[in-house]
């Protein structure tokens, strides 16, 4: 049976009489854990911010109909040449519509799926912006505004004007900020747009759109689906794209494969579309953990040293304890407990300091045009990090304390008593 | 009379630096309440024998019985328990935990044994300190008292669990004659009044002559027993 109260009180007394060395060892842990918490909160905050930048406005599955040459050429279907080898030169795709056939039933079908948070239609088209004598090429996307606000945080990217204005204005347009700058347009102005090979339509500017990606902002604008359908002269079942948002992003790959097969459409999942993005996240995490573990290993060596020294100084105590009936295990636990106390105190302090620093960073202003929704440096304060950090502290001090305490366990009291 | 400690054919060798036969066929018994002293020239193996008897040294041949129970080849943890409960040890040099108070030093073995409540242990510790006339030092740090006082604290600590046997390796070795006398009186009274057995290594002939039995050692062997010869 181990009398923990007694062992802890002996360990505590040893530590208190060597308060200087103890504090230094504990500070090593504090430093390691503090920087881990700060780093990990900041790095994952950064990750989340960048994720939001791209992923929030990116659908989990993007469905469209691709223009590509048909795989079965008419000659293959002709029975008469079935057993011969047919060569067709210079195959061109049939100029089919970019339109998705039966888009509305498909959207209906997808919305009924319980994994799907929402499937919404878009019309993408190329247009020219015309203001006075300037003519600029660009993209106009017809959107279902309410659904875009709900699923893709569309409101975050409207920097002037409001989403409501677009909803209420029949011929309204949310103009990309880059275009607005180039053409010196203000809210309330009119901009004329013309689809390729179509008429010129005047639209009223109700707001500006800024995604944070300059290349996009220089060409992209938004209008209501109905407005775009009218510009293109298409009926109201004309839909070119379907964007799907899921509850669980991990389901994107299987679902996109299924859609692709079932409807004979192109369905691209977010993982495939943004593979390089995950790499960045992984590397930032790697850096965070590499730095933190390095710091903790250094702290661990500090504890190892100080404990070794302490055991050397307390040889007499160890001999006396063993002579008066403490077992080797008791002695090991006494020194182990000292390591754990150092780890515990240092770890808790580290958590507090990490929390303080992270909170401080959270208040430092960070304004950049590319990120309209960000006001201060991003911090992700996840309780899990604090649990990991604390376990880290306990584990590293346990490892650092194990070897020295095992040495103390094996010390032969007779040798020490004789040595006096 | 019941036998507290019995040594049967104890042999011990030191293998380094050269093979050295320190203890040669040691046989003796200690009865309950008996006050025994061990004498012999320096280097004849008295301390070595005491370390074996105290169960701290397990590297020997022969058999050791405590209260008729064989303790040779018992597990280390069990031997620790035996030392804690049945054996009190007083070293030649006052071995105390320097960072702890006198009272804490005395209480530690009892806390380890954990048979009594903390209040009882503290009460007992004060009792032992009082018998040794050092109760006024209870709250002092062990490193802040004199050598003679430390020796008495060590005796109080050896007594705290009311052991069957107290062993001392020259416990009065560095005490003045007054304190030496005092320690002898305490030992004598404990053996008479409380039936405590004592086994004390000493170079002091006066001290030895007043004990119940003298074990004389020479070159690792027990040679004569003057009292029994007479
Ligand atoms: N670890 C060891 N290795 C080898 N020889 C040792 C060791 N310890 C003690 N000895 C030898 O064993 C013999 C007995 O030593 P021990 O300490 O038992 O003597 P002692 O009778 O207690 O002497 P003293 O009265 O001076 O204390 C001595 O000759 C000593 O040199
Ligand atoms: Mg000796």
Secondary structure layout:
The complex is a heterodimer of chains A (420) and B (230).
Chain A: H1 4-17, H2 19-56, E1 61-64, H3 74-77, H4 103-112, E2 116-131, E3 134-143, H5 145-152, E4 158-161, H6 163-168, E5 172-176, H7 177-183, E6 190-195, E7 201-209, H8 214-217, E8 220-224, H9 225-232, E9 241-246, H10 252-263, E10 266-269, H11 270-273, H12 275-313, H13 315-323, H14 328-363, H15 383-410, H16 413-419
Parallel strand pairs in A: 3-8, 5-7
Antiparallel strand pairs in A: 1-9, 1-10, 2-3, 2-6, 2-9, 4-7, 6-7
Helix pairs in contact in A: 1-14, 2-12, 2-14, 2-15, 12-14, 12-15, 13-16, 14-15
Chain B: E1 3-14, E2 20-31, E3 35-40, H1 46-53, E4 61-66, E5 69-70, H2 76-86, E6 87-90, H3 102-113, H4 118-131, H5 147-159, E7 165-169, H6 177-193, E8 197-201, H7 205-209, E9 213-218, E10 221-222, H8 226-229
Parallel strand pairs in B: 3-8, 3-9, 6-7, 7-8
Antiparallel strand pairs in B: 1-2, 1-4, 4-5, 9-10
Helix pairs in contact in B: 3-4, 3-5
Q: Your description of this structure?
A:
The complex is a heterodimer of chains A (420) and B (230). Chain A is α+β, with helices and mostly antiparallel strands. Chain A contains 16 helices and ten strands. Chain A has two domains: 195 residues, no CATH class; 192 residues, no CATH class. In chain A, strands 1, 2, 3, 4, 5, 6, 7, 8, 9 and 10 form a ten-stranded mixed β-sheet that branches. Chain A is elongated, with a radius of gyration of 33 Å. Chain B has 230 residues and is an alpha/beta fold. The model of chain B has no long low-confidence stretch (mean pLDDT 89). In chain B, strand 4 and strand 5 form a beta hairpin. The longest helix of chain B has 17 residues. Chain B has one domain: Rossmann fold. In chain B, helix 3 packs across helix 4 and helix 3 packs parallel to helix 5. Chain B is built from eight helices and ten strands. The chains are: A alpha+beta (420), B alpha/beta (230). At the A-B interface, helix 1, helix 13, helix 14 and helix 16 of A face helix 2 and helix 3 of B. Bound molecules: adenosine-5'-triphosphate and magnesium ion (MG). Magnesium ion binds next to helix 1 of chain B. Adenosine-5'-triphosphate binds next to strand 2 and helix 1 of chain B.
